[in-house]
Amino acid sequence: MTSETSTSPTEATRAMHLRPPAPLEPPPSHALAPSNVLRGKCAPWERAASFIVFLGLALALFHAAWQHPLSTQIGGAGDANEYDWFLSWMPFAIGHAHDPLISHYVNFPGGINLMWNTSVVLPSILVSPLTVIFGATFSYNVLATLAPALSATFAYWAFRRWTGIAPAFAGALVFGYSPYMVSQSAGHLAQTLIMSAPLFLIILDRLLAVQQGKPWLEGAALGLLAWAQLLTGEEVFAMEVVVALITVIVLCAISANEVRDRLPYALRGGAVATGVFAVLSAPFLAVQYLGPYRVQSPHPPDVYLSDLLNFVVPTNITKLAPKAALNISMHFSGNGSEEGAYLGIPLLVLILVTLFVARRRRVTWVAFVAGASAAILSLGPTLHIHGHDTGIPMPMDALAKIGPFKNLLPDRFASVMTLFAGMLVALGLEELHRLGRFRLPALAGGWAVTALGLAFLFPITNFPASLDPLFSAYAGGLACPGASNNRSHPPVALVMPAANELDLRWIAEANFCFVMPSDTGMTGTNSGDLGQQNVMLTVGNSLTPGFPLPPLTPEVREEAALFIQDLQVQEIVVGPETPASPPWSPTEQAQLVNWVVGLTGQQPVQSCDPFRSYIWKHLPPAGDIASGHVAAVQPPPPGAKCTP
Known about the structure:
Layout: H1 9-18, H2 44-61, H3 63-66, E1 72-74, H4 79-95, E2 102-103, E3 106-108, E4 112-113, H5 121-126, H6 128-134, H7 136-159, H8 165-176, H9 179-184, H10 189-192, H11 196-210, H12 215-230, H13 234-254, H14 256-290, H15 323-329, H16 345-357, H17 362-377, E5 382-385, E6 388-393, H18 395-399, H19 414-431, H20 439-457, E7 465-467, H21 472-475, E8 492-496, H22 502-509, E9 516-517, H23 535-538, H24 554-567, E10 569-574, H25 586-600, E11 605-606, E12 614-616, H26 622-627
Parallel strand pairs: 3-9, 8-10
Antiparallel strand pairs: 1-7, 2-4, 5-6, 10-12, 11-12
Helix pairs in contact: 2-7, 4-6, 4-7, 4-22, 6-7, 7-8, 7-11, 8-19, 11-12, 12-14, 13-14, 13-17, 16-19, 16-20, 17-19
């Protein structure tokens, strides 16, 4: 009988302890991220509710325009009319197989490079159906309203990763409805479409800190977002990149012991982001840097910047700005739309409290350094105090010497600053919940200061809106010349004054039935974007009442005749006095009409708008204009018969 050998439980246990452990497989690199990196989640109902609330606030802010959204535009006349052109050009160019990034319809005989302009390429494409159906004014109003609403909504989503509902909401208000946002909404659409900033914050947090997803997917999202912002507002994108680089350096410095573990994940995601951005952006950047009509340094670098006092002194864009404060802010450099660095003393005090109560949270110092860096860069190349240039060099002076960064307007770094200011407000309010026995009085004090700070930021309730009705001279085709003398382009019409940005709106209303010489490219103010200077391009450009027009001397006639002949101008249009442009009054318009009548010896056709345009449809030969052998006619009397 054979016996089977068996092992007792005690022996088996002893054998297990003596046996060497099996080798473990190395964990995937993303598992190296600490498992205690936790983030809050924003519920679906919160996402929807936050957008509805913030959209309601935007509609209330811009209520004057939304009473008649097809004919009244948010903000004032001027730069907003550029966006009418941009919004109209994109569907027209695509529908007629033109290059959407290069246009010869303005600044003729040259043209413009839309990548060197604030042309909001991607938003223009997205709202093209609205533009075609309802017009550019409506599309502009939609985008201008969505800008603060979506910016605040995405900021709320971002802040909810670190805070509760109420603190995140307060912080989102600081960002989405800051004086920067409100002041830029007067006409700078590209500078208000900054909803990418909080989205960058979310993706970079996932890619660099949390690291619990798929690095390639997060990298792809980062690259796609960067491309989208490039085609929305390249200036804002450049500022976001600068602040992001500073933030990453700070994050690495205060987390040096984790860099080695987190680096592989971050590098994989970063490589994908770089690849996606490079592939998508290459065609557009090639047009910008290799294409025609490149514009450099269109604005002086030391004008549009944040005055040091602007952080605590409000401008007339806030409702509760006292007269004493306005007497100070009126001396700031630049203009009202570029003075948006105001945060106010209460919120600055709350941010200091945050640095104390949330000092143990790494995110606090990252947000502080990012916001402070953006604030310092917004001060420009030299420090200005109360409108006085102290000559003290600032970091922006060094940044402006690096490639395309010289084209940045420093004050617009306030866009990024307000994001991190809102984040610090949210973090501080969140930390006040954790102060033990001091929790209730601290919360009461913190929310009281926050309410006061938000009240100081409360915008004006009569936000400007400009009446921009359709003018029959353009929408009805009256200003459209006949067949072109040149098959390579439509007929040429000179709209005067040639520097009036409303000209851009009118050529769009005319469905681009003519090309238009101008002396300013797209902005009407940029000395760096000037085209050819000719009497026909400069006469009447000053809207100062009583500005004398040049006498019709033989030299002036010859210069005008050569311009008309060289460009084959078939039609001259003197634009209307409009409710959107009060400095251009009937008096100045009549002076210019009389001047063109004297030059051509012809009476114009008048449109039947309440604010009339005057059009010279059949110009005499250039030789007759030069010699002055033209008919002596009287200018059209007021109330003369018009042409519908």
